[in-house]
Amino acid sequence: MEKNYDMLKLENQLCFPLYACSREIVKKYHPHLDEIGLTYTQYIVMMVMWEKKHVSVKELGEKLYLDSGTLTPVLKSLESKGLVTRTRSSEDERVLIVGITDEGEALKEQAAEIPPKIACCVALSPEEAGTLYKLLYKILGNESA
Amino acid sequence: MEKNYDMLKLENQLCFPLYACSREIVKKYHPHLDEIGLTYTQYIVMMVMWEKKHVSVKELGEKLYLDSGTLTPVLKSLESKGLVTRTRSSEDERVLIVGITDEGEALKEQAAEIPPKIACCVALSPEEAGTLYKLLYKILGNESA
DNA sequence: CTCAATTAAATTGCTTTCAATTAAATTTAT
DNA sequence: ATAAATTTAATTGAAAGCAATTTAATTGAG
């Protein structure tokens, strides 16, 4: 009885194109992010900050699927650039609250120009992009399974 | 005139769920890959080796969307585990040919058990998985744009 | 109340990833 | 035939990313 190795082929795996695609698209952000002095990880942290203004490291981690091991150095770097503040919560000293500075707010202006530039070099129609979006969030939503 | 910041929201970006999804699924591989002593990157290199037997670093990089900066240490590590060989091409000394060893071939057996285990914890129907697959390769295929 | 368990973030150690540079071999143009 | 340009890997340096551990604060059980 012959064993079936088909699933072991790169082209039969869903994980691989996901992984490759993710890196290729993130790469497209680099030249634009360079202009505003952010890395991709710093950029997605700032995206949360532009929406929420104040957020604990834990909440940030849940939103971005990142842990404190990744976030701590990123947040320290954003703090040193003057874009966010890091303050311990007075109610619970374990909690670190990340806040946005005026300078951080101001950066939103320039950052807003990036997404349209990326969108136009991803070769999907709006419908396809919508479908992809839903499928990705379906996977993300089902972490427990 | 109010500027439109909607595209700056995390939930309106395609890149973010792609990035998060990729990392979450790769994470699911870890416990299984640990059992056969491979990292995810080593695993996808081995997937190419199981199919091709002999491949240059350049070809490997094109297939996996990785450069020599990433591949060189991974290949050295696989070589030290005895799973692949690294030999300079005699026709062109610049080219490094990666070959698979018997031990590398033998690992395929255990590796074949991994994909089914992953598949069943990704909450997509076969049709959805197919759609996702096509969309991802549509993006990957359009690198030039 | 006190000690154990839990929680949040930071730290450590390791692999990955990538941009940029370097080194060596090959190809091309003159 | 030789010099310039190109190609292939390797190297270097920096940021991510993650598992595992540690530290400090808080909560809970007896």
Structural commentary:
The structure is a homodimer of 145-residue chains. With 145 residues, chain A is mostly helical. The first copy, chain A, has one domain: Orthogonal Bundle (Arc Repressor Mutant, subunit A), CATH 1.10.10.10. Chain A is 60% helix and 9% strand. Chain A is built from 7 helices and 3 strands, in the order ααβααββααα. The mean pLDDT of chain A is 92. Chains A and B meet through α1, α2, α5, α6 and α7 of A and α1, α2, α5, α6 and α7 of B. Chain A binds a DNA duplex (30 and 30 nucleotides) through α1 and α4.
Uncertain stretches of 5 or more adjacent residues of chain A = none
Alpha-beta classification of chain A: mainly alpha
Number of strands of chain A: 3
Q: Name the quaternary structure.
A: homodimer
Cα-based radius of gyration of chain A, to the nearest Å: 19 Å
Strand content of chain A: 5-15%
CATH fold category name of chain A? Arc Repressor Mutant, subunit A
The average pLDDT of chain A is 92
Strand order of the largest sheet of chain A: 1-3-2
Helicity range of the residues of chain A? 55-70%
N/C terminus separation of chain A: 32 Å
N-to-C series of helices and strands of chain A:
HHEHHEEHHH
The coarse overall form of chain A would be globular
| CATH homologous group name of chain A | Winged helix-like DNA-binding domain superfamily/Winged helix DNA-binding domain
* Tally of helical segments of chain A: 7
